[in-house]
Amino acid sequence: MSYEKTFSVHIFTLNAGGGHYATLKALNAIAEQQKRPWHITVTDIGQLTDLLDPYKKLFGVNANEMYNDMLSMDWTWFHPVSMFLDKFFINLLYPQAVKLGEQHWNQQKAIDLVISLVPLHNRAIWESLQRVKPGTLMATILTDFADCPPHFWIEPKTKSYFICGTERATNQARALSVSKEYIVQTSGLIVHPRFYQPISSDRPTERQRLGLDPNKITAIVSFGAKGCATILDIARDLERISDKVQVIFLCGTNKKLAQALQERPTQLKQHIQGFTEDVPDFMNLADFLIGKPGSISISEAIIMNLPMIVDRNYSTLINEKYNADWILEKQVGMVIKSFKQIVPAVEELLKPENWLRYKANVTAIQNRAVFEVPDVLQGILDR
Asked: Which Pfam families match (predicted)?
């Protein structure tokens, strides 16, 4: 369908973890590839609400920086407290947030659709939007496998569309009495279209280029865009089976971690990689994933046909706990209580009967969300 009109689309994202910006990049890429008639503007909700940030006033560091530090330093055991405080402060400062939102919308020209890729702030986004630009449409795209109610992703009192990547999230929206017409379930979460493109490079040759054995079982270790100190512990433990596996370490923006991995004495064949946009190429060289149960990392691994080993315990992020359950439900990998168990877990994963089952289950999952969501959004715009 050709359009004479260009639609104005305003997207909210968030620099807390890597998933929100990863989803934004994926949406931008697919919109450009498909030549969608959208003029996209982007607002970082953290920057918009910076003046209200209680953490910055109390500690001199904004909420998103604190969250990212918590991830990189492996202090995720603190997340239940930080989640409680986030919800408390956002509720306490709700009237001021709505006023900030009104000021923001008053500075914008006509908008056809607002897309939220962020949790916690959607009620204020909706109310301020309707006060200034009544009737403007809104869609909330969950970048998690499940909601963490109340007032996390799904705000039932709004008239936002909720685009859910799992049956669990869809059922949560229904349980919160969201009208059926405002719930859309896709085949998964949005992953960058690059993950779907054929990779023509020869795996053994590319492994050799990275200093790896061309034929050895290869793990890829990733804890998201911010990296995590736990990766160093995993590396030390994998020394015990360096004769069986080699490893690609994705350290994200965590330069201290990358340096520590480089400087340690090791018998393990390894490649250490900082932040990169070429994650599909590195995953293509791997046989399985080791990491935290991040929703985007899991989704990327599924597309690249990688079984996985993740942990789930008291320190798992609240919004990622269900992700580990999903892995068990779908039988696409193993969930362990601690990465201290990584060596026996790898050995168990690689047993032929287990390996064949996990590979078959991973391959059976067809996530086409990045191609489905643009049609959903265009359908909303056309109403």
From this structure: Glyco_tran_28_C (PF04101)
